[in-house]
């Protein structure tokens, strides 16, 4: 866990060092993501079978696909409120949401974020962007399949962001479940795209979850694990 010396006042996402990196990342995403995803879909259509996670990751290597700015502000605010010591992110991409979460950890004065990303080029970009934002010491970006990399995280986990490939939300969550504590909060982005199996899982009180939809960005599911699984 990283513990930082107290700094006067909350710097927030308006800290010039942070905001300049975020502004660049969002501008690049607006300009390039649509073109990158169109190319990815066109290449995927040429494959004889649906692409594997590794193939999908390679096809989308040039697409940042960041959380919506309103979702990023929500993540910052949530982390400031919860004051988590251990945060986990599935799908770090270029590091936009990692920066938003890490800024909150910095302003809290404690905590560490572990992110994971399958594509090696994105891992390098995320690490560089976090360093440029002055937050690299608060984040570890693991390279590889999240079902393997997140199995190495030490619990308990206080806050989870799921923002990678939607078909892997449930497998990744089941890897993390032994690390959850009563009150752990899970944020699942891109609600309209989420598999029904995953939604049924996190909306089932018998499994120990309480969940609600939030109208942020493309839709967010906010969930807490109560520890009351039947």
Structure description:
This protein is of the alpha/beta class and 230 residues long. The protein folds into two domains: 17-59, no CATH class; 65-225, Vaccinia Virus protein VP39 (Rossmann fold), CATH 3.40.50. It is built from eight helices and seven strands.
Features:
2 domains; 19% strand; Rossmann fold; single chain; 230 residues; 7-stranded mixed β-sheet; 42% helix; alpha/beta
Question: What structural class should be given to the helix and strand makeup?
Answer: alpha/beta
What is the percentage of strand-forming residues? Answer: 15-25%
Estimate nothing, just give the exact number of structural domains: 2
Order of secondary-structure elements: HHHEHEHEHEHEHEE
Which overall shape is indicated by the principal axes computed on the Cα atoms? globular
Q: Which CATH architecture of the largest domain?
A: 3-Layer(aba) Sandwich
Radius of gyration: 17 Å
Helix content: 40-55%
CATH topology assignment of the largest domain: Rossmann fold
Q: How do you describe this structure in short?
A:
This protein has 230 residues and is an alpha/beta fold. The protein has helices at 16-45, 53-59, 69-82, 96-108, 120-132, 146-149, 169-176, 196-202; strands at residues 86-90, 112-117, 139-143, 157-162, 180-189, 209-214, 220-225. It folds into two domains: 17-59, no CATH class; 65-225, Vaccinia Virus protein VP39 (Rossmann fold, 3-Layer(aba) Sandwich), CATH 3.40.50.
